[in-house]
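Weekly structure sync - notes
Attendees: PM, LS, DV (DV joined late)
Agenda: review two folding runs queued last week.

Item 1: First target. Sequence and structure tokens pasted below for the record.
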Amino acid sequence: MKKLILSMALIGATTLAFGQKKVVRSAEKNFKSGDLTAAMADIEAASADPETGSDPATYLLKAQIETKMFGSDSSNTASTVETGRTALATYNKALEMAGGNKEEGLGKDIYTEDMPGVPDNLRPYSIFTLKNISFDKALERYNAEDQEMAYEFFDLAGEIDLTDTTVHYNAGFIANELGKFEEAKKHFGYLLDVEEYNKLTVYYLLVQILSGEEKDPEAAYNIIMQGREDYPDDKVLAEYEIQLLLQLNKMDEAMASIQEALKNDPNNAGILLRSGYLKEQAGDMEGALADYKKSVEADPEFYDGNYYTGALLLDKSMKILNELSALPDDEWEAKSQSMGEEANVHYKEAVKYFEKALEIKPDNAEVMIILYQVHERLKNTEEVEKYNKMLIELKGPNWLDNI
């Protein structure tokens, strides 16, 4: 009797297991035919069963059903992304249950390459199918000018493949545009790990995020030094390095970098300007003025070069006049004419640089005011009136009261 009861129990267990396997087969059939609601109901039942629910193949099929549901949802909204992320989690669970090896067994099936454009019945519905569908949805959203959702789909595709440079550049670029700077840094960071990838633009963007948006010059400098190792001859990174050294008040290192950069690029207006700035800070006014003038010679349309040159010439004039005013009366009488004329020479020279600066930025009120005051000093009545009219148009009739 006991043997009979045992036999009946075994038959029952076998029948139950067979029944659950039948449910898995039904899920597969419905998956292939496109009845995804029925397929999902079947696979949910199978995954809840102790036997079929412990089989990683059950979860691979579930992930494939979820992937097809993801692809068939043309709304491409946040809920679509959620379906895709659920599918990814299921693929990962199946891989973990199968031992985690992507190269053989079920792991190989999960990571089968997917070729976009092949008929649906020939697609492997692997994790790479999920990635490619997500990429296509990202492009669709981007072309529809829905950058928020384009980013989400690119981000999902990137989570599947950390080495796909197109996916991560697009994700990082859009995240940066959206102000998602942590997300942008994440994707750009993946690009820096791809050895053969041309990373220059990525370094530029990371420096801009770190130094500009996040106000972290130390982190930006570290990224620049990493970039300089990869691209030692890049002139833009060399300029960024100097700029950040100045920002970090590392003057000696900045000057050394400037001298090295000028060996390779002696006519770089930006670097010449920074060289002049360092010399000015160190008290070498003549050296600073020479470098500022060289920056304008290298690029006549360089606003900062023209402005800094004019400003330093004005500074020279003011020092002469301050020195004159500090003299005793008898010395002042003897030197006032010669020292005044010397100051005026620098004022006159400054005019051409400020006029060029105003030509480059024609609505710059600050430069107009400087030219008004210099011409007033030089008693150039017509020029004084010209700049007065310009300032009235720009700032109103009472502009003088507000300076």
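Item 2: Second target, run right after the first with the same settings.
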Amino acid sequence: MQLVCPAGNLPALIAAVDNGADAVYAGFRDQTNARAFPGLNFSGDDLRRGIAYAHARGRQVYLALNTYPESARMREWEAAVDRAAELGADAIIAAEIGLLDYAARRHPALPRHLSVQGSATTQAALRYYHERFGIARAVLPRVLSIQQVERLCAAAPVPLEVFAFGSLCIMVEGRCQLSSYVTGASPNRHGVCSPARFVRWDEQPDGSRTVRLNGVLMDRYAEGEPAGYPTVCKGRFAVGGEVFHALEEPTSLNTLELLPRLHAAGVAALKIEGRQRGAAYVGSVARVWRQAIDAHLHAPQDWQMRPEWRTALAAHAEGHQTTLGPYHRAWH
């Protein structure tokens, strides 16, 4: 199994490669990718250096072009495909069918991975993308149980990649409406939920802090209480006389205990979420997963979860708690 790690900047890319990533995924510094935060992502020069660094060590770099352009702006996304090919990227990760079609026609030798934003969860959907656009891999959305993943691996016409660790999303990827409902800026089109220009932090006289998204109160934190980046799905709201995480608690997906089962199913790649996180996060998480994967490949019959792996990953989890999410559920 490939270990595919995130990089929001050049130091993170280097950290991923140095700590065992087989491939790194990154984005350009614009709205063509779904992590378009200010100060994040790559200029052409940085990406060229990053690709050279990875290739010199036998690793790959994938370009995330996974947002949905408006028809009037399609040429910007097509130009991004051209740049990815020119820079020597090993694959693009895309969801919009017009963009996949353009890439297949204009750069047939550049592998195309179907993004999680494409929300392909059935054999029929995967077959369509494979036959029509020649995708070489598909990233499965984080809504499937482990049993569903196993069945898809057995029937899919292309290798499959699954999310292994990182932030969860309660929406079906590619169809989120929460951020656009509050801000008018769709994460699927504008590249980020909770765009920074809509975020306002205020410190209160008692030392507490409030955070608002386009004027809507998302959360209130006591003095010294850890605070995450505000998103609608992970805010605390007053409902029925109580204030709580009404939609989703801050927590991170962690499937490390499922590693043997994912390998046996034939999963081609394990993906770490977190292009918005720093080099320390990327390096630490990549190192744990590299050790776990190598230990399983070396002696699968003796593999077991090590306490130090669990502790290291929990330190980087949202809310310092982890979950198997939809991978583990009674119904599927």
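Discussion on item 2: The two ends are 25 Å apart (CA to CA).
Action: LS to circulate a short write-up before next sync.
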